[in-house]
Amino acid sequence: QVQLQESGPRLVRSSETLSLTCTVSGGSISSYYWSWMRQPPGKGLEWIGFLYHNGKTNYSSALKSRVTISGDTSKNQFSLNVTSVTAADTAVYYCARHFAAEVHTWFDPWGQGTLVTVSS
Amino acid sequence: SDDLTQPPSVSVSPGQTASITCSGDKLRTKYACWYQQKAGQSPALVIFQSSRRPSGIPERFSGSISGKTATLTISGTQTMDEADYFCQAWDSTTPVFGGGTKLTVL
């Protein structure tokens, strides 16, 4: 079965770049879509963006100017970069496999998540 | 999220039926999915394509959609079902989430 694991720095300074990697096991990132989401402490879920196996990406309009998602098929990993972070970017960041149909999409499974704190 | 509206909280007694609603224009596609998030854990898919259950999800979980409202129903609710539940739909090119509902079983 597919499993995902997020990794990366837990503490990022304000104005710097947040970088996370998702390692996929039990399946290849050369299939399906792969997404990043985040959840500020005590709040709801926010979709950040996805990567398709052909390299196509799509990002949330709210974050589009600061986000890049890329993949490394040789390592079966995909990554997230968020530039110019502020305290508002403090959240648990999740990666997930993303199923997409014509008018519907869902995420399964999710990684365990990693809390990233932005410090001033 | 303002895109999909969920009640902040729902309470149910063990063994009873819990219903959690999710409403909004984004449901005009007639598809929604639901995630369960227990305390300290990552979300887990419990319903997709409005009414389908992934492998391993108990039959007491069911979903439906009518008009612009999707409903997650848990029949014979168990204490282990206490969690936050989030709905999610598709808005043209992006996924959108509801604000979440805290289900209390007491």
How far is it from the N-terminal to the C-terminal residue of chain A, by CA? Answer: 40 Å
The helicity of chain B comes to under 10%
Unreliable sequence segments of chain A = none
Give the assembly state of these chains: heterodimer
**What proportion strand of chain B?**
over 45%
Binned, the helix content of chain A reads: under 10%
Instruction: Tell me the Rg of chain B in angstroms.
Output: 13 Å
- Beta-strand content bin of chain A: over 45%
Largest sheet of chain B: 6 strands, mixed
Terminal-residue CA separation of chain B: 27 Å
Helical segment tally of chain A?
Answer: 0
Sum up the overall morphology of chain A in one term.
globular
Protein chain pair with the most extensive contact, residues per chain: A-B, 22 and 26 residues
Q: Strand tally of chain A, please?
A: 11
Mean pLDDT of chain A: 95
Supply the helix-strand structural class of chain B: mainly beta
Write the element-wise H/E pattern of chain A from the N-terminal end onward. EEEEEEEEEEE
The coarse overall form of chain B would be globular
Give the helices and strands, then pairings.
The complex is a heterodimer of chains A (120) and B (106).
Chain A: E1 3-7, E2 11-13, E3 18-25, E4 33-39, E5 46-52, E6 57-59, E7 67-72, E8 77-82, E9 91-100, E10 105-110, E11 114-119
Parallel strand pairs in A: 2-11
Antiparallel strand pairs in A: 1-3, 3-8, 4-5, 4-9, 5-6, 7-8, 9-10, 9-11
Chain B: E1 9-12, E2 18-23, E3 33-37, E4 44-47, E5 61-66, E6 69-74, E7 83-91, E8 94-97, E9 101-105
Parallel strand pairs in B: 1-9
Antiparallel strand pairs in B: 2-6, 3-4, 3-7, 5-6, 7-8, 7-9
